[in-house]
Amino acid sequence: MGIDASNQIILASGKAPGVGGEHVLRKISMLSSHEARTIQLPPDTKVVKDICILPGGSALFASLGRRLSLFSMTTNSVVLQCNLPLPAWSCSAHDSDSHRVYAGLQDGRVLVFDTRQHSRPLHSMAGLSKHLVHTLHSVTDNSASRKLLSASAIGPCMWDADGNQSSPKLLLEDDNQRVCFSLACAPPSSDLLVASYRPKADYSSGDAGAPSQAYLSQTSTQSGAGKLGQHTVIRRTGNASFAEGSTCHSNVSEVRMCKSAIVPCGNDEHLFAYGDESHRGVLTWRLPSLGVHSGLIPHRQPILDLRYAGSRVGGGYLGCLSDDKLQVYRVDR
């Protein structure tokens, strides 16, 4: 899902009805829920894993069909496709330079493309592991240099956006007892982040790297409600250094790479939002303390996607999507 706050349009990916239905985009007007258009995607696009709204009336999306695609909101069509060596799970672009776009791949690499010369990537940057890159955010550091924040199972990393460094920097020490499945920030700032984790599930008997029994006893939940995971604040402590802060717990998916969001809410205050598995709705916590704030109206099915988009004229929108419902909340600042 992607939210174009300026034009009050939502893009949501899905499958057309019927057996073997093709993957489509649904373009929905926030001004009228009846103004929805179903848009066929090019053959072999497959599942769309991430959507990034760009300035100027276009959107970028990454798909398992090994495509990084540029979609025109004006013509309601895909106007450019970058061929990728592997399925893409995430994508991003900087507001200040929407020609330069990024794709996070299944093998841990991040590819950099220029949409004006897209036949081959400008850079192919290797990650610290072979785990898929499920999250990408385009940000700046405190010296205003462009950076990329990514997340894979080993945790969040910071990359040089221009491909000038040999490898990314892992923001926190790798913890082999947990898997990072989501990373929230408030671009372009990278000063305040929230990483979400669940315990590893596949340990061989007697593995020295397996979590302790005490840790496992804290992570079991009732059947069908996911498992107990944790959300951890990460704060910048220097130009290239970060530290782990407050932690809270909620019920998280055992398998999905779920999305989360940091929501600005006025007076320089922020909320962290996540779709809790047992609540089947969005819960919010105050930042940076992660004190409980509120729960939004639950759905009948688990939350599959969650996005916040700020508007240039102030305020923004928080959207959450499940199999049978799309909710959008206006956030005033």
From TrEMBL:
Catalytic EC class: transferase
Principal localisation: nucleus
Cellular compartment(s): Nucleus, Nuclear body
Transmembrane segments: none
GO biological process: interstrand cross-link repair; protein ubiquitination
Pfam family of the protein (one): WD40_RFWD3
InterPro entries per the UniProt record, alphabetical: RFWD3, WD40/YVTN_repeat-like_dom_sf, WD40_repeat_dom_sf, WD40_RFWD3
Enzyme Commission number: 2.3.2.27
Catalytic activity line of the entry: S-ubiquitinyl-[E2 ubiquitin-conjugating enzyme]-L-cysteine + [acceptor protein]-L-lysine = [E2 ubiquitin-conjugating enzyme]-L-cysteine + N(6)-ubiquitinyl-[acceptor protein]-L-lysine
Protein origin, superkingdom: Eukaryota
Domain E3 ubiquitin-protein ligase RFWD3-like WD40 positions: 25-330
GO MF, any single term: ubiquitin protein ligase activity
Bias kind Polar residues: ranges: 214-224
Stretches the record annotates as Disordered: 208-228
Gene Ontology CC annotation, any one: nuclear body
Protein name per its UniProtKB record: RING-type E3 ubiquitin transferase
Species this chain originates from: Triticum urartu
